[in-house]
Input
Amino acid sequence: MMDRCQEMKDQKEKVKEEMKAQDAELTEQVAKMNSAPEDKKMSLMAAVITRLVEQRIARDERKAKMEEQMMKHMMQNMQMGKDSMSQCPMMKGMKDMDHKSAGPHKEHQEAQK
Output
């Protein structure tokens, strides 16, 4: 099971790296568009927008698939007992996220009262 946990963590890191590469590509395209002569800007802008849409569609599909895998993974960990959850590298990463976002969420909960 721990091998599967590490695979999921590695997959998450790979997605982060891919997103950084996509951001760099878009940054380059925008810089090229901004420095282009006026008569070329419209076609370059269309290329940037097209690329953004393609990336967003792919990202949303990948996100949905990863969420489904994550839910299955969490269920498997829960079936193995609570110690399995605490040892999972993916769950440890999520616990860190909770601590980072606890402040705004706590404020939101208090505002609901």
